[in-house]
TrEMBL record:
<feature type="transmembrane region" description="Helical">
    <location>
        <begin position="36"/>
        <end position="57"/>
    </location>
</feature>
<keyword id="KW-0472">Membrane</keyword>
<protein>
    <recommendedName>
        <fullName>LapA family protein</fullName>
    </recommendedName>
</protein>
<keyword id="KW-1133">Transmembrane helix</keyword>
<keyword id="KW-0812">Transmembrane</keyword>
Amino acid sequence: MSIKTIVAIVIAVLLTIIIMQNRDEVPFNILFTSMYASKLVVMAGVAIAAFVVGVIVGRPKKQKYDIEQYHDTMYNKNKTDTLSDEDRDYIS
């Protein structure tokens, strides 16, 4: 098992313990309304929303940016004569 898997399991267990300890019903003020809801439902909803946002933000890009290929296409790596006329005059 990798460290990432172990950390994910530990966080899931701790989150489950915390959510189960907070099952009482309390009033929540959301914008202009007040409603009674279980802390368990609210905390589970927030945890799921945070997980979804984390997955969306943490997913890898579809295409990697290759700086070497970009540089080669911009400056034509195979071209041997890269000095400008001004540079040639300065060297001469």
